[in-house]
Amino acid sequence: MPSQPKRYGIPIQKSTLLTLVTPLFLLFAIPKTSGQVASDPFEFQFEDKILRGLIEKPQDVKPKALVILIPGYGRTNFVKGNWYANLREKLVASGLTVVFWDKMGCGNSDGDFDAQQPVENSADEAIAALQKIKKLKVPGFETIGFWGISRAGWIVPLINEQFPMKFWISVSGTDDKENFGYLLKSNLIIAGKEEKEAQTLYEAWMLGHKIFNTQGKYEDYLNAIKPLAQDSLSRMLFGYTKVSHITDEDRKKFTQEQKQYTSKGHFDTESGLWVYINDFDQTLLKINCPVLALFGANDSQVDWRKTKKLYEETIGANPDSELTVKVFENCNHVLQKCITCGWREDLSALKWQACDAYYETMEEWLRVHQIVE
User: Fold this and answer.
1) Which residue has the higher pLDDT, 225 or 265?
2) How far is the C-alpha of 174 from the C-alpha of 286, rounded, in Å?
3) Which residue from 6, 72, 239, 307 could staple onto 151, CB 3.0 to 4.6 Å apart?
4) Coil, helix or strand for 360?
């Protein structure tokens, strides 16, 4: 698992942080079943760069549909690292064509990786891939849907506005607001903090978050989050450090980061959280297809209860869509069995076991909705 990025000795507190665990899939990748899967290279152009991935399809069955995999935050290593191999094998075995690619600057894709790629830009990237898929007439292209995890909960609905999808499997999806505070507090409690102390540290983060998002001064920001910098557990888990000397360069970088971060979306004064997609509920209301929303009951990174409620009030209220929700007990953000379910938990002792009935739930849902035979 990659370490948390820093902002001048202070953790970057951005909603995209919720998917830092995506590389866990690399750890439980398995070899493809070459006798059942036909695999072809896939590439398309985006922003004058070539992004590269694979098209995998059943070898002896004509696919009725095609699913595109949309990963979460962070670098990808789909092709060389054989990421999501279990998932890909299951989806192909069910009769789907599966398409995926590595992000810019990852794997064999051209360009430079942007850790803070806007979700709107990620949606445009997927639209470029869709156009190439349709041009190639990849088997199953008449019925295209998505499987996406975490950060993809913003990306897929944005894709749908330009390219109405036929189905969506959302794993650990997001609501409309910043989530780092939830991640911070829940993981402090998992690591042993009492509720009251965790709440105090959360409130310190909230104050710093407000100062940052409302163009406050760097000194005020540092003072607000001082309790986090002084707390050993917060330093260990999230990389907070004490700042004893402030330079003009520090202030300049802080101001630049503020402007870059707040250039899109807005700060919600009622909740005190950052909103990345304005009127996200209206975006979700435009979804007119079957949606399967899967959550881990012990997700310590995304407040899945808020997402579930949002989905029920939007997708579930739309007569032209159909929402199915499944919550898996004793499972974490990436739908793996867990013990503490903290965001940095080593699951090797559990052999990276998927939640009970995780794959079966998807396969059955695809059959019920006649997406596969």
Assistant:
1) 225
2) 17
3) 72
4) helix
